[in-house]
Write a structure and sequence with these properties.
The protein folds into two domains: about 130 residues, MutM-like, N-terminal (N-terminal domain of MutM-like DNA repair proteins); about 140 residues, Orthogonal Bundle (Helicase, Ruva Protein, domain 3). The C terminus is likely disordered. About 40% of the residues are buried. With about 280 residues, the protein is an alpha+beta fold. The chain has seven helices and eleven strands. It is elongated, with a radius of gyration of 20 Å. The chain binds zinc ion. The site of zinc ion (ZN) has 7 residues, from loops. Zinc ion binds next to loops.
Length: about 280
């Protein structure tokens, strides 16, 4: 499932195409699956993209934001890939395939396609991107230690669900949450309020360094559906295999309904650090 580093890779790919295939006005927009369109976006708004040009590309958490220029007030095309969403840019042709949900065709014959086998992806067209991404917490790739400490001091929660809550910190999903906690040598059930200052600083360091390395690697290639880059995972999906640091087998527990990979040798849960939510071994 794409998380911040994979969406960042998509943003970079689209940005590169701005001076190539995407450097031409939109001639047609074809929505092949109504489910893709968020309820707040009308078909009329989507079709009003015709005549606009692809502008600045940014990312907020796991949302991809593309400014569409050419109107008096810029429009923003916002996409969330969710589980299996994928963007493809082709310089010619671009006939819809089996899982194509959206096709944006340009005057030069190029096309941007959104494919999504599982159909959880979401699309917005809006003048006000803040309405879509305004509730997100600080972006996990660039959050400062000061902001991160402030966020942690305002919530008293188990670390795994805290890292996954997009309103607290934006961009981390199940894979990178496990990798971050392993690097920080913190247990996913430890509670944020019980962390010492050096735990917080180590956790912040792990958040920023893991995500920066994963962006550099073009993302991870894990679930066999969303194929991205080469980021090497240490614990995620490795239950039963030896920990690269201490050799003990990586185990899989459930935390807040999510499969969670930990090394019980490297990530100790001090008895006064545990939360009240229960964790069952699976
Ligand atoms: Zn270990």
């Amino acid at each position: 499932m794409p998380e911040l580093p994979e969406v960042e890779s998509v943003a970079r790919m689209v940005r590169v195409a701005l001076t190539g295939p995407l450097a031409s006005p939109v001639s047609a927009v074809e929505l092949l699956d109504q489910k893709l369109l968020d309820r707040s976006t009308s078909m009329e708004a989507l079709y009003s993209l015709a005549g606009t040009c692809f502008g600045a590309v940014s990312r907020s958490g796991k949302y991809l934001i593309i400014r569409m220029d050419g109107r008096e007030v810029p429009l923003y095309l916002i996409l969330h890939l969710r589980m299996t969403g994928r963007i493809m840019i082709v310089s010619a042709g671009g006939d819809p395939a089996r899982h194509t949900r959206l096709r944006i065709v340009l005057r030069n014959g190029a096309a941007l396609l959104f494919d999504d086998p599982r159909r959880f992806g979401q699309l917005w067209v809006t003048h006000a991107p803040h309405d879509v991404v305004g509730t997100l917490g600080p972006d996990a790739l660039t959050v400062s230690l000061e902001t991160f400490s402030g966020v942690l001091s305002r919530v008293n929660r188990q670390l795994k669900p805290l890292l996954l809550d997009q309103r607290v910190i934006a961009g981390i999903g199940n894979i990178y949450a496990d990798e971050i906690l392993f690097r920080a040598r913190l247990h996913p059930l430890a509670v944020s309020g019980s962390l010492a200052a050096d735990d917080v600083s180590r956790l912040h360091g792990a958040v920023v360094s893991i995500l920066a390395e994963a962006v550099q690697a073009g993302g991870a290639n894990i679930d066999g559906v969303f194929k991205a880059g080469e980021f090497p995972v240490m614990v995620y999906g490795r239950s039963g295999q030896p920990c690269y640091a201490c050799g003990l087998p990586v185990s899989k527990i459930r935390v807040a309904q999510r499969g969670t990979h930990i090394c019980s040798g490297c990530q100790k849960l001090a008895s006064d650090h545990s939360g009240t939510e229960s964790a069952a071994h699976s």
